[in-house]
TrEMBL record:
Probable component of the PAM complex at least composed of a mitochondrial HSP70 protein, GRPEL1 or GRPEL2, TIMM44, TIMM16/PAM16 and TIMM14/DNAJC19. It holds the Pfam family GrpE. Belongs to the GrpE family. This is GrpE protein homolog.
């Protein structure tokens, strides 16, 4: 079997050689000749693209997308840094405004109080200069006039700045506005649980209690403490 196969191969080679010789005699190039192989190689080199022509279209697209994303990241980073800087500047300005408000918030109130101090000082000077020794009546009259003027000015300043004195007598006891000092028996016309007497005035600033009024609250006689 192997001998027959070898014989068949030899016959095929002989036929190919014979055919090649005949082709060369007629001026043709056999397809398996060296010239033919060289020409075929040259044709292939001219038709097929070389392997080192550069990156493919997909690679170029990826590079372009990467460059675009990098630019976007840089832009967003710069925007973020500017936003952080602006926020820090706003925080500092706000803090400075709050500190200024704490320091100078009562500037107008203090300016009005200075006028009260001026009245008190002038009254004191007037009494000490013009009062004759031993004239107590005249002295008391001057003091009274000076104190009356001082009180009127203080009330004007308080009203101007929203400072109001509470008058809780007869009102129901409120722990948010009143400080209980003691209980007293409810008298005629005084309801139990209401304010009967004010020991110290309370004040509100624009409706907010800034000092509780010290009060005595009326109760039934058996509940007196």
């Amino acid at each position: 079997m192997a001998a027959r196969s070898l014989w068949a191969v030899r016959r095929l080679v002989q036929r190919l050689l014979a055919s090649s010789a005949a082709s060369e005699g007629r001026g043709w190039l056999h397809p398996f000749s060296t010239a033919t192989q060289r020409t075929a190689g040259e044709d292939c080199s001219s038709e097929d693209p070389p392997d080192d022509l550069g990156p493919s279209l997909a690679e170029r697209d990826l590079k372009l997308k990467a460059v675009k994303l990098e630019k976007e990241v840089q832009d967003l980073t710069m925007r973020y840094q500017r936003a952080v800087a602006d926020g820090e500047n706003i925080r500092r300005r706000t803090q400075r405004c709050v500190e200024d408000a704490k320091i100078f918030g009562i500037q107008s109130f203090c300016k009005d109080l200075v006028e009260v101090a001026d009245i008190l000082e002038k009254t004191t000077e007037y009494i000490s200069e013009e009062t004759e020794p031993g004239d107590q009546k005249l002295t008391l009259e001057k003091i009274f006039r000076g104190l009356s003027l001082l009180e009127a000015k203080l009330k004007s300043v308080f009203a101007k700045h929203g400072l109001e004195k509470m008058t809780p007598i007869g009102d129901k006891y409120d722990p948010h506005e009143h400080e209980l000092i003691c209980h007293v028996p409810a008298g005629v016309g005084v309801q139990p649980g209401t304010v009967a007497l004010v020991r110290q005035d309370g004040y509100k600033l624009h409706g907010r209690t800034i000092r509780l009024a010290q009060v005595e609250v009326a109760v039934e006689s058996q509940r007196r403490l």
